[in-house]
Design a protein that fits this description.
The chain has a four-stranded antiparallel beta sheet with strand order 5-12-7-10. Strands 6-11-8-9 form a four-stranded antiparallel beta sheet, with no helix packed on it. Helix content is about 65%, strand content about 10%. Helix 1 runs antiparallel to helix 3 and helix 18 packs across helix 21. The chain is extended, with a radius of gyration of 41 Å. With about 650 residues, it is α+β, with helices and mostly antiparallel strands.
Length: about 650
């Protein structure tokens, strides 16, 4: 928002500068000031200055306006603070900013055949996915909700309409203005065709006119208010066509559901809103029927005049609350109500019962669905934990171990690590999956030394193969001498590198540290064995990278493999696990392996070429044989001469 506001201020400032050059204006102001100091100035010039002073003062206002805009822009920058610099890792990986550019933004083009060109600006358009359109939909939804609630209420309860007539007329025409502006915006709202933004105004107009929303928008603005001249402003029923705009609030709810992080709360709130609106309309219809039949004319209608001594029954509040109470009871089929007395009352009650059944079924179905979705993650997690508990109980696992496993599960749920990241990202393509993973673990990746200089493609492939593991306090991640099958990167927590006695702490590992790469690279001197014992101090989150995955990736990036091997050798030499002679031998062995692998690769290519050559030779022999057969056939036909009788 701050960046867009800054850009708008720059555009406005540039437009003013183009129309009125502040340098020229200042010169125009300074010239007369300089001349007034000159004692030899002629009276004619003084008169001209007085005549032109008014126009010059008018022109001098525009530089002041420009300076004011500059001050406002500087104040906005100080309030918002400096824009954050792009992350070095994201810049090196050439990962695009997740905030998508506005495809429908106005563009400047240069036109003209004289070589200079004239700068023209494309017409303004609205991006349907922009925040502005979303906020505007919220404003339209407020106007729609006002009409949906108040039109029927004002039409039924006369006191409500007459006592606040000026307020209602003001709000009515404010909502009408919102409806009109919404139609104008929709003529300028872009859309995507085959993935590309459509900016042609004629196509946008046709797209909107041919849609069903255009017909509903036109019906919602039928100018029936003109009949107020004959009926008076209390005929609120003339505004019922405004309810055709309800489709816009459905669009707003759909956009909100896709934007919010708590869709279940939104679904419940939306359900309650619609149910309350149905109850409200039913209450108003009940009071309208009671008023048309006569209040207190029988036991079914509103019992207002019966309570003659209690004036509260004649108040607007009591009328609406009692009608709302009656409507709620009959639609929810809760409680007993007086029986209908006339046929029309029976028909209305039957219809209400049917609506009540549908409302009740809707409530039960939606609430059940929402609650099941809200607890889906917890239920799945609980099922996994119950399965582990049942397994430990059937295998007679000790109580201490069972408590440790349960505490581990509890920590996963409390720390929001119960979600399977791989399963959650499987629906995304690999490129987008890698971008999401890098953004999610950017803080950790920035602290890992081996990732700071590696190739961007290598880092992307490695991130896709990282798997998160959580270790409990006191767990041994690896022990010295074990076969290494994976390397680890510390995401959070603290680890201890233990001595051979299992008590002395040699070093500590924190966020960004990594270990285990030596054993999975099979370096000389240690092979594939762990060179140290590492233990978790508290609950620790580690990324694991399997040996097979790492070697598969390094096969495509030999330079990164050599760099990682050199780094591992330096660590082994420093710890005394690898001598320089062994390093030389290892270099020779590595060189021999590289030569052997290259020779094997050449042999494989030669075998492929030999097979391809044999295939081509076979095709050539076959085509040559067919050609000979055709030539022989043609020769026979040529030698044979037809005999004449």
């Amino acid at each position: 928002m701050a960046a867009s506001g800054d850009i708008e201020l720059k555009d406005l400032e540039q437009q003013i500068l183009e129309e009125f050059d502040p340098a020229e204006d200042e010169c125009r102001i300074e010239v007369p000031l300089a001349q007034t100091d000159n004692k030899e100035a002629s009276p004619d010039k003084d008169e001209e200055e007085e005549e032109e002073s008014g126009s010059r003062d008018e022109q001098a206002r525009f530089p002041v306006l420009v300076r004011t805009l500059q001050l406002i822009r500087g104040w906005a920058r100080r309030r918002v603070g400096p824009s954050p610099e792009p992350d070095a890792l994201l810049t090196r990986l050439k990962i695009a900013d997740p905030s998508l550019p506005d495809e429908f933004a106005a563009e400047e083009t240069n036109e003209g055949s004289d070589g200079t060109g004239t700068s023209t600006r494309s017409p303004w358009l609205l991006n349907p996915a922009s925040n502005f359109v979303y906020r505007w939909l919220f404003v339209v939804t407020l106007a729609v909700q006002y009409n949906a609630w108040m039109i029927i209420a004002r039409a039924v309860f006369e006191e409500l309409q007459t006592e606040y007539l000026a307020l209602w007329l003001t709000l009515d025409y404010v909502c009408d203005a919102i409806y009109i502006v919404d139609m104008v915006f929709r003529f300028r709202t872009g859309y995507l065709c085959e993935g590309l933004p459509v900016k042609d105004l004629k196509k946008l107009r046709n797209h909107y006119v041919m849609s069903s929303g255009f017909a509903l928008d036109v019906l919602s603005l039928l100018p029936l208010d003109i009949f107020y001249i004959a009926t008076g402003p209390n005929a609120v029923a003339l505004r019922l066509p405004r309810l055709f705009k309800l489709h816009r609030q459905f669009t707003f709810f759909a956009k909100t559901e896709s934007r919010t992080s708590k869709p279940n709360v939104l679904r419940v709130s939306r359900l309650i809103l619609f149910i309350m609106l149905i109850i409200h309309w039913n209450a108003c219809i009940y009071f309208a029927i009671s008023d048309s039949m006569g209040l207190a004319s029988d036991s079914w209608v509103y019992p207002g005049p019966i309570q003659a001594n209690d004036t509260s029954w004649h108040s607007l509040t009591r009328k609406y609350v009692y009608s709302l109470y009656w409507s709620t009871q009959i639609l929810t089929t809760i409680g007993e109500l007086p029986s209908p007395q006339t046929d029309s009352q029976y028909v209305f009650v039957i219809f209400d019962f049917l609506v009540g059944v549908l409302v009740f079924a809707t409530i039960v179905g939606n609430v059940t669905y929402t609650i099941s979705n809200m607890n889906a993650a917890r239920n799945e997690f609980q099922d996994r934990m119950d399965g582990i508990k049942q397994y430990m109980h059937s295998r007679s696992v000790s109580k201490d171990m069972e408590d440790k496993v349960i505490k581990w599960f509890d920590y996963l749920w409390t720390a929001n690590y119960s979600l399977d990241e791989q399963q959650a990202l499987d629906s995304l393509p690999d490129k987008l999956k890698a971008d999401v993973a890098i953004y999610a673990h950017l803080r950790t990746l920035n602290r890992v030394d081996i990732f700071k200089e590696c190739e961007p493609g290598l880092l992307v492939e490695l991130v896709l193969k990282l798997k998160l593991q959580v270790f409990s306090p006191g767990d041994y991640i690896c022990r010295k001498g074990d076969v290494g099958k994976e390397m680890f990167i510390v995401k959070s927590g603290k680890l201890q590198v233990m001595a051979d006695d299992g008590v002395t702490e040699l070093a500590s590992l924190t966020t960004g540290s990594y270990f285990g790469e030596i054993s999975i690279l099979n370096l000389g001197g240690v092979g594939n064995r762990r060179t140290a014992t590492v233990r978790a101090v508290g609950y620790s989150h580690l990324f694991s990278l399997a040996k097979r995955d790492l070697l598969d990736v390094l096969t495509e990036y030999p330079d990164a493999k050599k760099k990682l091997e050199e780094q591992g050798r330096r660590i082994l030499i420093k710890d005394g696990l690898l001598r320089e002679e062994d390093e030389e031998e290892d270099h020779q062995v590595t060189y021999a392996k590289d030569v052997l692998s290259r020779v094997e690769a050449i042999e494989r290519e030669m075998m492929k070429l030999t097979a391809k050559l044999a295939s081509l030779q076979g095709e050539f022999n076959s085509s040559q044989m067919k050609l000979k057969q055709r030539l022989t056939s043609l020769e026979k036909k040529t030698v044979q001469v037809p005999t004449k009788r």
